[in-house]
Amino acid sequence: MKGLTILATATVFALAGAAGAQEAPKDPPVIKIGAIFAMSGQASWYGQVMSQGMRLAVDEINAKGGVDGIKLEAVIEDHKGAGGAEGVAAINRLMSIHGTKIVMTSFTGPTLGIAPIADQNNIFLINGGGVGVKMIGASKYIVHNRSLASDLALGALQVAQKMGLKKMGQLHWKNDVGDHIVATADPVWKKGGGSIVATEAVPQGSTNMDTQVAKVRAAGPDFIGVWMFTPEAGLAVKRVREFGMKQPMIGVEFTANDAKIAGATADGFLYLNDYFKPSDDQPWSKHFAEAYEKRWGQAPEFYGANYYEGVYLAAELARRARKKGGDYLNGERLKAALYENPKVDSVYGGQMTFQANGVAQKRVALFKVKDGKGEFQEFVELK
Q1: 264: burial class by Cβ within 10 Å (0-12, 13-18, 19+)?
Q2: What is the DSSP string of 111-148?
Q3: Is 13 helix (H, G, I), strand (E, B) or coil?
């Protein structure tokens, strides 16, 4: 009887252990990472460099054994640089043909179009290209390893503080992007001891902002935050200087189009942007630059770096989620895996930290315009 009791007790513990055992991971034959890029049309340059970074990362990870022995496959669809309809068609192809649960997205319009579909189908989205603030929270499963406009503005404020500036005047787009930057920047600047002497909104598409510039001049700021994108950024720089204002201007973008509009008045304009620059003290950064140039015959742009980094992010999250077993390749599980430890290695150097809103903070670059081109000044660690 005693032996039977011991046997029964052992059986109970064995059954309890089995009941509490972790479910084995449901591994697919291959992990398909989808992408929606502008592979054709006027914006096809972006699709080219984005896809090159993505493919390089997939091949590197597979050469190292994939994700716990499971190989990756890049599946790329074309949104043609168009709006939401092309994005929707692209993600539907990724789902119906490939069963993709991880999708790299780009451009604001297509991303907003696919966001509700991602929520309905539990698809994890990684944006490495679009900067529109409307993308923040568009899907509960979207994250961004591209610095968005509001974060670039916060970096601009860090630069202004470092320069010892106190009184800020602002020229901003009168739209969701510009309004969001102002709402983000105002409390941060005030908390740091600065004051805001003027905030003037300029409608997107405006060709005359003289009234707004005149009001900023009358307020006597130490510097001017230019919270708008091309072509208004170039026009703002031009008119501020033509109004005789010599204060520093700091913005969040400056393109070749802005340079054409502003001409020589743009010299000295400061702006922040994502910037990939390999360095000897960052081995992964240096490796990527060399591997990219060897394979594609050109130095990598930051868009290529972002989507290369994005694939490594996807692989890391898949590894983390797989350790807990079950059906791990879905938006819910991958998002949970990220926020258990929101610090992830960045090919830009060091680590990037994903904020609660899904946007990664990593180092960005400060540029100064000279002869129509932005010259790299220094890296800025976003705080």
Answers
A1: exposed
A2: HHHHHHHHHHHT-EEEESS---GGGTTSSTTEEE-SPP
A3: helix
Report CA 332 to chain centroid distance, whole Å: 20
Q: Provide the β-strand partners of residue 226.
A: 171, 251
Strand extents, DSSP E, the chain:
31-37, 72-78, 102-105, 124-127, 142-144, 167-173, 195-202, 223-227, 249-251, 270-273, 343-345, 351-354, 360-361, 364-370, 373-380
Distance (Å, whole) CA 87 – CA 90? 5
How many whole angstroms separate alpha carbon 230 and alpha carbon 126?
25
Q: Please answer whether residues 300 and 288 qualify as being in contact, where contact means their C-beta atoms are separated by less than 8 angstroms.
A: yes
Q: Which domains are present in the chain?
A: 31-147+279-349 (3.40.50.2300), 150-273+365-380 (3.40.50.2300)
Angle at CA 169, nearest 5°, toward 167 and 173? 150
Query: Residue for token digits 């503005």?
Result: 153
Kindly report whether the peptide bond that precedes residue 116 is cis, defined as omega within 30 degrees of 0. no
d(CA 168, CA 165): 8
- What is the structure's pLDDT at 21? 65
Q: Which regions of the chain are under pLDDT 70?
A: 1-21
pTM: 0.82
